[in-house]
Amino acid sequence: MFTRRRSLLSRAFDLVPVFALVGVGVAAVFIAMNVLVTWAPISVASPSPSSSPGPTFPATPSILAVVTDTPFLTPAPSASLPSTKPTIIKTAVSAADPAGAWKVYLAYPTFKDGTTPWAQPMNADIGDEMQTRVAQWENGPAANPRPGKLNTLYGSFVTDLLTPELASFTVTWTDDSNPGAVQLGVETLTYDLSSGQRLAFDDLFPDATIALATISLQTRSLLQDQLGTAYNPAIAEVGTNPTTSNFTDWALTTVGVKFVFPQYQVTDRADLQPAVVVPWATLKPVIVQSGPLATLAGF
Questions:
Q1: Which one of 19, 164, 250, 293 has the minimum C-beta count within 10 Å?
Q2: Backbone angles phi, psi at 198, to 5 degrees
Q3: From 3.40.50.2300, 3.40.50.720, 3.40.50.300, 3.30.565.40, which CATH number describes the 57-199 domain?
Q4: Distance in angstroms (rounded) separating the CA atoms of residues 194 and 115
Q5: Mean pLDDT of the chain
Q6: What is the pLDDT of residues 183-221, one digit of tens each?
Q7: Domain locations in the chain?
């Protein structure tokens, strides 16, 4: 018996699924290759470099090394804030050398738990920084005992601004561990309470170059009025040149931004650590125009 041979058309229909399957496979490969080419590269976070050891103290003056004025946390989501300002508690590092070589008392601000959302990380930031300062002093200038002389480090703080959204403080201290005049130290701390972030200069002024030009002129005029006969143009003009390093210590107030100048930066008077307030009206053209700072400035 002979098997009947199928027609060419019938056999062609049998091949259709095969070609369809091959076509789908080719299309899939083409699409996958295009996706791989056009897909945005995934960034892999590298571990942050380990912190370098704290700076050593210069022979003179013995002002404690400034830690940082940069945000201490990675960007955090904003939290809902209470309608009332937080409660501030005075905390202090208080210690004395068993051998009688030194004594320290450095007070600093602490946020009471429950009165602002990010109290704990902000407290850890401030506390760790103050403890580090004291440890550097104990192992630096204070570690050199002088016969009949107790090395001391005494400091406290003032609250420059406290609202439900913002907090700003100035910490100052005196250090008599070196021969000669007592050394004065200062550091300012300002926080955005909605995120727990410490604010930096660039957070206030979007264009730092323009802002520094305004601040430089204003602080020179204010210092001349404040210092009177203690104003030395040769020193003051260098200390107020429009560079960020000259304006690292600032604090927010209800009437403007306070700039504090470390000992000897703008005057040769050893007993002075001048501070001036540049009014909000003057800073309006150069300050950030959104968020709680804008409200504070009167926008």
A1: 19
A2: -80, 130
A3: 3.30.565.40
A4: 12
A5: 81
A6: 999 999 999 999 999 999 999 999 999 999 999 999 999
A7: 57-199, 200-299
Residue 251, pLDDT above cutoff 90 = yes
Q: Report yes or no: 253 and 243 within 8 Å, Cβ to Cβ.
A: no
Specify the pTM: 0.75
Spatial neighbors of 211 by CB under 8 A, at least 6 apart, are: 204, 205, 283, 286, 287
148 by Cβ neighbours in 10 Å (0-12 / 13-18 / 19+) ranks as exposed
pLDDT at 76: 52
- The correct CATH number of 200-299 out of 3.30.390.10, 3.30.1300.10, 3.40.30.10, 3.90.640.20 is 3.90.640.20
Sequence-distant (≥ 6) Cβ neighbours of residue 281 within 8 angstroms: 298
Burial of 76 (0-12, 13-18, 19+ CB in 10 A): middle
Rounded CA Rg of the chain? 31
**Residue at token pair 């323009």:** 210
Strand partners of residue 172: 156, 186
DSSP states along 72-113: SSS-----PPPSSPPPEEEEEEEEE-TTSSEEEEEEEEEEPT
Show the tokens assigned to 88. 């501030």
d(CA 129, CA 111) in angstroms, rounded, equals 15
Sheet containing 102-111: which strands, arranged edge to edge? 88-96, 102-111, 151-162, 166-175, 183-192, 197-198
Find the range with the poorest average confidence among 14-23, 117-126, 290-299: 14-23
Amino acid at 55: P
Task: Centre a 10 Å sphere on the Cβ of residue 278 and count the other Cβ atoms it contains.
Answer: 22
